[in-house]
Queue: 3 jobs
Job 1
Amino acid sequence: MLRPNVAKFPNVTLTPFGGLLVDFCIAHEADAIIRGLRALSDFEFEFNMALMNRHLKPQIETIFVMPNEQFSYTSSSLVKQVAKYGGDVSHFVPPNVAAALKIAYKR
């Protein structure tokens, strides 16, 4: 579902992987991991993850960014719950994802 939504960006590639993110970063010569923080509740988990990644590969830096205010409360769990009960999720996900959710939660 991701590929159609990033196809218009020539500088974006999708590469699935298994294992540790820091190992993936080393293999692809990445210097940083960029993570979004929607709310304070995200911070503790992300902070612990960043510390562990730093312990494993100190040369990889983690950078945190804040989302646009309109997306700050959006989470995949909430979107799935709204879709499950027949709500409109088109403001939160691309059309192909909204269609897949509709099929997945067909009532």
Note: The radius of gyration is 17 Å.
Job 2
Amino acid sequence: MRRETFKSADFRAFLTPHPSPLTFLLTTVALLLTLSGCAKETPIYRDQSFVFGTMVEVTISGEEEVRARELAGKVLADFDYLHRTLHAWEPGALSRMNAVFAQSPSKAAVVPGLVPIIQDATRFSEMSGGLFNPAIGRLIKLWGFQGDEFKPQLPDPREIKALVQASPHMADIVFEGIQFYSKNSAVQLDLGGYAKGYALDLAAEYLRAQGVKGALINIGGNIIAVGSRGGQPWRVGVQHPRKPTAIASLELHDGEAIGTSGDYQRYFELDGKRYCHIIDPRTGYPAQGVQAVTVLIPRGNNAGTLSDVASKPAFIAGVKGWRAAAQAMGASSAMLIDERGEVYLTAAMKKRLEFQEKGLVFHEVP
């Protein structure tokens, strides 16, 4: 029986098959996981799957293989279920909601488990001043980013303008008892910038509840740490946005989460210009002038979610507004790489990063 609520203690128990080595090598992630600094006798177990449109890896330290396999399998199974439930365009609970929104002001019964998720995403959208806006799914679809392949073609500017003027926002969604509706028929939810982080928090909570002393969960570069690896911090690398290597690395401590938004995973190029999937809701066009934004979030109840969400407003705000946008989301440790490859970072982030790339141009901000 499928659940319609999401509680970390309810993870299903079946194993997700490993992807082939070729699939793993061809999958680009926002952060490269580099594990080091641990006693040899500490057992390490890793399991991988392809979920949320990206590669996912669960690493568990200090557990016997049978138990670690069971724990990792439950985490990956729950990720798969969550992915299907929150998918923006394939059949599922969220796509059914979107169908109702399109018939505004029609009402329908809501899946209870979606209410806190949407309310949480609405809160983050308000924190960002609307730069993080999961209600612009129609714009994302118009640009061709709701699919596995991206065609190098530009949408009709008139359609873009019409959707921007329709001004869909999360605040347009209304819950009345067991029913919901939208005050704006242009609302179409796409939680692609939220779901991975939310899944990280669920997984971390579950593994802690199971007594796991060390784990690292990596969903396409959004990473959260549980405990340590044999008494040593986990070490992760920050993906270079234009090279298949890490631009820097850092130690990730218990409860911390890190995430990157970049223009190098979901994008197409046309006439020498790159168009990525991160859409500026103010203009209706993909954000420009930035290659990547990375945020480091301290331990907290929603560290994983923030690692996914907080980088988006900073990416959209660009070089001039990134610091204020990150600060508004509570991300004091942040880094931006602009279109020329120059690095802007906060003093707090500079203290944590060890750069491998030589010849970089740095701009430090308080």
Note: The mean pLDDT is 89.
Job 3
Amino acid sequence: MIRSESSTQRARLPNLGITVEWLTIAWMVVEVGVGIRAAILSGSVALMAFGLDSGIEIVSAGVMVWRLGIEQQGGNVERVDHAERRASTLVGWGLMLLAIYVVASAAWGLWQRSQPEPTALGIALAAAAVVVMPVLVGVKRHIADRIGSAALRGDAAEGVVCAYMAIVLLAGLVLRAAFGWWWADSIAALGIVYVIVREGREALSEARAEEDERGLK
């Protein structure tokens, strides 16, 4: 009886995961729209990086809906493994591309001594993300551990990056608004590059490890 209940509960996890991913997509659409608009109006590199990161997360969440859908439909192990590798690879390269953009844009901002305008809209968005993202990340990690999904763990890690970015972004925007520090925005953007690269490399490493393991079977 206990085994039956445990199996039933595990079978429901992909459904829960899909629901969380759709919620993630809905929130990321808000972040993309508000973040990029606020970035254009204010000239903030950190806000633009935040908005683009949200765009990558939409792709990542969409891939995870596909991956979890295969498991939900009872797809065979080979199909699920293939989806897992594809998802991990896409998440990893998306993060790497974002890191390149952030470094280039922040360096250019420092070189040009660009002075983004303070933006209440950006501050409100960053503050909201600081609250929302940890909740989504916590649920994703729980499901990933239960079903053994490296791709979902990578997707959750990308959510951690988003939350980290929101904290740094919020600090940079507040410092710029309060003290007029022109360099705070670019420094805030550079502050999250290490985390982005680390999580991107981890996702790519997991994808390669899964490929190697498959080749040995």
Note: The chain has one domain: 2-216.
